[in-house]
Design goal:
single chain, alpha+beta, about 15% strand
C-alpha cells in the first residue's frame, strides 16, 4: 500500500490495464538492455555488465492522460 500526495491510500494492484510482455532472443542481443532502459530509463554500462541467465521480472506503472493507469 502506497500513500500518494493527496494522502489517500493506493494499492500497487490499482490499474486500469495490465500488459504482460515477453522478450525472447539469443544470448547477447540486448533483452536485458531493453528492459533496463524502459524500467529504469537508463542505459546499462556495457563495461560492467555480464550476461544474464534465467528469467527477470519487472513492472512499471504508466499513467494515462485520459485517466487510469497501465501496468506494464
Amino acid at each position: 500500500q502506497v500513500n500518494n500526495a493527496g494522502g489517500s491510500a493506493r494499492h500497487e494492484d490499482d490499474y486500469t490495464f495490465l500488459f504482460k510482455i515477453i522478450l525472447v532472443g539469443d544470448t547477447g542481443v540486448g533483452k536485458t538492455h531493453l528492459l533496463s532502459r524502459y524500467i529504469k530509463n537508463q542505459i546499462p554500462d556495457r563495461n560492467h555488465t555480464s550476461p544474464t541467465i534465467g528469467v527477470e521480472f519487472a513492472t512499471k506503472p504508466v499513467p494515462l492522460k485520459t485517466g487510469g493507469t497501465i501496468k506494464a
